[in-house]
Write a structure and sequence with these properties.
Blueprint lengths: L1 E5 L4 H12 L3 E6 L2 H14 L5 E5 L9 E4 L6 H12 L3 E4 L4 E4 L3 E4 L7 H8 L4 E4 L6 H5 L7 E7 L2 H12 L4 E7 L4 H18 L11
Parallel strand pairs: 1-2, 1-4, 2-3, 4-5, 5-8, 9-10
Antiparallel strand pairs: 6-7, 8-9
The structure holds NADP nicotinamide-adenine-dinucleotide phosphate (NAP).
């Protein structure tokens, strides 16, 4: 498949892109700057020799994409999606955004957002797209260590059952990872909020945590 990343130059976008390139997918790294997008694509090629990658401005890497990952901070979500409504029309969009902020002396704090979750706000802004959420609980560091076995569940939320199955299929291509249909858009809030807990656990225990459900 052809996979594009809006805000793909950060650790999370690059991490998912590297794992997906290793699984044989074609990768397009988007950025607010054409140059940084190209540099991001180069980083994926260096991590996964032989990978087919390209990079450029966010709006320019989406045309061919089968699935578009949103991998930028929540603070940029509204403006970024507003600018890309037309380019994202009809596409499967996987929102990786976890709304959070860092507070001194506290650590990561999950934000209460007006639309209940970043996913629901994205769905509202992109009525013509097939928007789901996933990967918010996957540490970028774990993803980028390609020789490191990952043990994790990826919870996929959204209304579009077929789009969720596509993203679950992609998640399952990462060895040790299990993609799970976690329900409708309103469930995404809980998944997004877990990210702050995991970040704080990582700091406290000096490790990289992920989640694994039992009984399922
Ligand atoms: N890092 C992790 O371990 C991790 C784990 C789980 C979930 N997440 C979530 O995944 C998302 C990406 O995480 P990250 O750590 O990779 O983030 P990041 O490094 O802060 O940002 C990723 C990229 O987004 C672009 N960007 C930054 N501010 C922006 C804005 N206001 N508007 C549009 N684009 C902007 C930048 O690319 P350009 O400057 O090149 O445009 C940046 O390189 C976040 O929502 C985060 O909560 C992260």
């Amino acid at each position: 498949m052809k996979l594009a990343f809006v805000g793909g130059t950060g650790p999370e976008g690059l991490g998912i892109a590297m794992r997906m390139a290793a699984a044989g997918h074609e990768i397009a790294i988007g950025s607010r700057s054409t140059e940084r997008g190209e540099e991001g694509a180069q980083k994926v090629r260096e991590a996964v020799p032989g990978a087919t990658t390209s990079g450029g401005a966010n709006a320019d890497v989406l045309a061919e994409a089968d699935v578009v990952f949103l991998t930028f901070p929540y603070s940029g979500q509204q403006a970024t999606l507003e600018a890309l409504v037309a380019q994202l029309d009809g596409k499967i969009v996987c929102n990786v955004v976890a709304p959070l902020e860092f507070q001194q002396g506290v650590g990561a704090v999950a934000l209460n957002v007006a639309g209940n979750s970043a996913l629901q706000e994205a769905i509202q802004q992109l009525p013509g797209s097939r928007v789901v959420s996933a990967f918010q609980n996957m540490s970028a560091e774990e993803l980028q260590h390609l020789d490191h076995a990952i043990e994790a569940d990826i919870l996929v939320c959204g209304r579009d059952v077929e789009a969720k199955q596509v993203v679950i299929g992609l998640a399952n291509q990462i060895t040790g990872v299990r993609g799970i249909d976690a329900g409708g858009p309103s469930q995404s809030r809980y998944v997004e909020m877990l990210t702050s807990l995991l970040i704080n656990l990582n700091r406290k225990h000096k490790t990289q945590t992920s989640i694994r459900l039992v009984g399922l």
